[in-house]
Design a protein that fits this description.
The chain contains eight helices and 20 strands. The protein is of the alpha+beta class and 410 residues long.
């Protein structure tokens, strides 16, 4: 039978071993839909200047939580760490989320199992840190339920050896897009424009290998949203054009504002902040970059299509009621040429056509100059202004009165 001091020493040793073994993780906090705990990648603080922690969620089937920019609905997890001690800074990292589409709503978040890697900077190195926080989050399936819980984990001082949870934290850390390390994906171009209240964003990405399943998330001023992109691949597959459509802000809040871009594919990811250039890439530019529509000449095809649409639009426009007063003036001008010399008539018509084209060129130059100056403007936007509509109505009444013979200009 062991002596009493020997038993005492063994019990004390077991206490220290037990404390050491549980230092890397807190107890699970369970509710009917989600289980949560804090974990660390090391068993003690050691002399580490940055200590890796993790906030771990296990979700029941069909339930999800949200990314930092949740999309059309939802709220991301939020933690108040003010109760912590010996902690100078906490960096909360967000792994890549999934897309969820339900009833026309596009949201971004996580399902099944997710660990948010935390990087803790202690105030005093080689001392224990006590991480405590008030966590609020929204768990959603067919309904959404808000939760508020207290979480905490104390990490004692000692040798900073890897814990049994180190692999899990590193696994999810590897799925966090980086702004600093070298990436296999490259953002070659980003362009933007507006059409009414809709925003259009083009992101051209390239890589040293074929890009198979590209996607991206766009973040900016609160309220800005973008759906899933339309994807166009180049001939060799090494370049991809992501076409995003979005809205949610006034035009001036979108144009020339920096955006946070998270772009990824099966083999790489990148997160960066860029301010888009004004104006979308032209078909000629895309053709020069290898986007040539299965070998067809995009430039010629697009030009032919634009001319055909312009002719059709002109024919339709001349049948609109608002153009009828102008048609009468045109017809009277043609009648005035009756019996004239053919050469003179042809030259007169050519000058008329040249005048119309010149007027539209001037309008286009004005619009280009305004957009280059950073203004969000497009043709047709004036018809949203009440004063302009009143002026146009008065002008048409003026035309109608003249056509009815109420007054004439000699």
């Amino acid at each position: 039978m062991p002596k009493l001091p020997t038993i005492f020493i063994i019990l004390i040793s077991l206490i220290f071993i037990s404390d050491h073994s549980f230092a890397a993780k807190s107890q699970w906090q369970d509710n009917p839909h989600v289980s949560i705990r804090l974990i660390t990648a090391v068993d003690a603080t050691g002399d580490l200047q940055k200590i890796p922690f993790g906030l771990e969620f296990k979700l029941k089937p069909e339930w999800k939580i949200y990314w930092r920019s949740p999309g059309d609905a939802g709220l991301p997890p939020d933690v108040d760490w003010s109760k912590s001690s010996n902690i100078k800074n906490i960096k909360f990292n967000w792994p890549l989320p999934y897309r969820f589409s339900v009833l026309g709503l596009e949201t971004l978040g996580y399902k099944d199992h997710i660990i948010f890697p935390l990087l803790i900077t202690p105030e005093i190195i080689n001392q224990a840190v006590d991480l405590k926080g008030d966590l609020s989050y929204l768990a959603c399936a067919n309904i959404c339920i808000p939760y508020n819980i207290e979480i905490g984990l104390r990490l004692n001082q000692g040798n900073a050896t890897n814990s049994s949870e180190a692999y899990l934290i590193n696994k999810f850390q590897a799925n966090v897009p980086s702004r600093t390390t070298a990436n296999t994906l490259n953002i070659a171009e980003i362009r933007q424009t507006t059409f009414g209240k809709d925003f259009n964003l083009q992101i051209l990405i390239d890589a040293d290998r074929p890009i198979k399943n590209p996607d991206g998330f766009i973040e900016g001023t609160d309220g800005l949203y973008f759906g899933a992109p339309e994807i166009v691949k180049s001939n060799d597959g090494n370049s991809v054009l992501l076409n995003f459509t979005g809205g949610g802000l006034a035009n001036e809040e979108f144009i020339n504002q920096p955006l946070t871009l998270t772009i990824f594919d099966d083999f790489g990811m990148i997160e960066t902040v860029k301010t888009p250039k004004l104006g979308l890439l032209t078909n000629l530019q895309l053709s020069n970059l290898g986007f040539n529509n299965d070998g067809k000449n995009i430039q010629f095809t697009a030009l032919f299509t634009m001319i055909a649409i312009a002719l059709l639009g002109g024919l339709i426009l001349n049948l609109m009621p608002c153009v009828l007063p102008v048609l009468s003036i045109k017809l009277l001008s043609i009648i005035n040429h009756a019996g004239g010399e053919k050469r003179h008539v042809r030259i007169s018509f050519l000058w008329t056509a040249a005048g119309i084209i010149f007027a539209f060129i001037i309008l286009a130059i004005i619009l280009i100059m305004l957009k280059s100056a950073g203004m969000a403007i497009g043709w047709g936007i004036q018809f949203q202004q009440p004063l302009f509509l009143i002026a146009m109505a008065m002008l048409l009444i003026f035309f109608a009165a003249n056509m009815f013979g109420l007054f004439e200009f000699h």
